[in-house]
């Protein structure tokens, strides 16, 4: 398996993060991750195919919103809450809380 | 002059707001508005043509991020801070503060 790229915290871009979050399915993924901590790929409750889900997870990973960790034949997905908070204080947290009422 | 459309606060969509903000020039416009209160169109300090600026202002208006008020032959632009805060608490505020360090 190819190593998965994650941007360094210093390289996180606000437009890229907002662009990654500007999608209803990706917001739902983020809300689930915020509720649960780490999630294995197949466990997301979103109404899309596995290949579409993989695409959305890649967009979020490449923007630095989440970290993907291979564990055997699975991948665990976690929000990069500390990195996002350090770089853009309050942004991911307020968006996560806004999803519930959006 | 045709009446300018502004979405009602109940109709604001989080993905649409994030999509409107996911652009470096539009973030710069928002930062200027946050600093200044109301701004007349020609006064924005952004490195784009007037027609491109008009496009960016339209995207932000249609997403509900700002309100445009015709005043004679000018248009005044203001952030809809209260509406955004009511609908998505903390989102516009944290993004506005993050722009300075982005």
From TrEMBL, chains A, B:
GO molecular function ontology, one term from the record: DNA binding
Keywords noted in UniProt: DNA-binding, Transcription, Transcription regulation
UniProt key word DNA-binding: yes
SMART domains for this protein: HTH_ARSR
Start and end residues of each HTH arsR-type domain: 6-99
Highest taxon of source: Bacteria
One Pfam family of this chain: HTH_20
Keyword Oxidoreductase among record annotations: no
Protein name, as recorded: HTH arsR-type domain-containing protein
Organism of provenance: Saccharothrix espanaensis (strain ATCC 51144 / DSM 44229 / JCM 9112 / NBRC 15066 / NRRL 15764)
Classification of source organism: Bacteria, Bacillati, Actinomycetota, Actinomycetes, Pseudonocardiales
């Amino acid at each position: 398996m190819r190593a998965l790229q994650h941007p360094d915290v210093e390289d996180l871009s606000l437009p890229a993060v907002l662009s990654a979050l500007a999608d209803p399915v990706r917001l739902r993924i983020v809300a689930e991750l915020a509720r649960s901590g780490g999630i294995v790929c197949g466990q997301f409750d979103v109404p899309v195919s596995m290949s579409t889900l993989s695409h959305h997870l890649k967009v979020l990973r490449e923007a630095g919103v989440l970290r993907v960790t291979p564990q055997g034949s699975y991948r665990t997905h976690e929000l990069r809450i500390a990195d996002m908070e350090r770089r853009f204080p309050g942004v991911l947290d307020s968006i996560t809380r806004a999803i519930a009422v959006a």
